[in-house]
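Researcher: Checking consistency across runs. Here is N-acetylneuraminate synthase again:
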Amino acid sequence: MSVFIIAEAGVNHNGSLETAKALVDAAVEAGADAVKFQTFKAHNLVTESAEQAAYQTENTGVKESQFSMLQRLELDESAHRELLDYCAEKNIEFMSTPFDAESVELLNRLGMKRWKIPSGEVLSVPYLRQIAKLNQPTILSTGMSDLDEVAFAVKTLLEAGLAADKLSVLHANTAYPTPFPDVNLRAMQTLQQALNLPVGLSDHSLGIEVPIAAVALGARVIEKHFTLDKHMPGPDHKASLEPDELKAMVTAIRHVEQALGSGLKEPSASEQANIAIVRKRIVAKRPISSGEPFSADNCDIKRSSSGEFAQAWDKVMDAVAQKDYHAGEGIEL
C-alpha cells in the first residue's frame, strides 16, 4: 500500500474560500492523496479569554486572544460543502480535522469518510468516543503525549467501537516549527512496536527532509502543513511548505517508497545484464595444452565474455584441460 500523503492546508486559507480552493489546486498539483482543513466553532473550542500559543503570537505579530484569532479563520457549512465538491471535482480526498462535537456532526453530515484526531484531543474522552462510534478510518496525532497517554487514547477509541484495522497513529511534535533535535523520529517506531498499528508522522519541522526520512523508517501516513506563501499573515504560514516544496516532498516520498523495495536480497531486473559483463571469469593466463592440469600458474580471473565464473575456481583447479586453450580464452569445464 502506498504512503498516504495529507497536504495540511489547516487554516492557511485565512478565512477565504477562494484561497482554500487555491490550496486544493496546489495539493493536487503536488500529487498529495488528500488535502486537509480544520473545522471548528471558536465558541466551542476556546474561552474568550484563552491566550494564544507563543508561536501563534510570534507568527502573526498580533497579541490577541485565541478566540479572536480563530473566529476569523472559521469556514461555515456552505464553504465546507463547496470545498468538498471542489475536491471531488479535482479528484483529491477532502479531509478536515474537527475540534469540537458540533464540527464532528457537521463533517459526518457532509459525508467525510476519513477522520483526523488532532494532538490536543488525545485525552478528550467524549470527543474520542464520538469519532470512534462512526467506525471509519481514523488517524490519531500524538503530539505532547507520552506512550501511556497514547495507549489510553487508543484503548478509548477501540472500546468505543472503532475497529483496530481502521486506526493509524502519527508521531507528532506540536512546536511550530519543530526544532530538529525535538523531532525524535525513532518515537514513531516505538509507537509501532508498542501498539502494533500502522504509524506515520505529522511533521511541523522546516523543510522536507524529516517526512522523507520518516517514510524510510516505515511511515505509512505523512501529514505536512503547506501554504500558498509563507509570508501571508496567519499563525501557521511560516512553518508551512510552499507549493513547490510540497511537490518536491511528494516526489521524494514516492521515490523513497519505491526504493524501499521488497526486502529480498537478489539481483534486480535492471542489473541482470551486468552480471555477465562485470563479474570475472576464469581464463587462460597463457596457452594451455589439452591434458594439462589447471593451476594458478596457467589460469587467471578477468572480465570475459566466456569461461566459468570465478566462484568455480576451486573446481577448475581440480580439473584437467580437455582441449588446447590460447591465452585469454575462457576456461570451460
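Researcher: Does this match what you'd expect to see?
Model: One thing to look at in this run: The CA atoms of residues 215 and 253 lie 7 Å apart.
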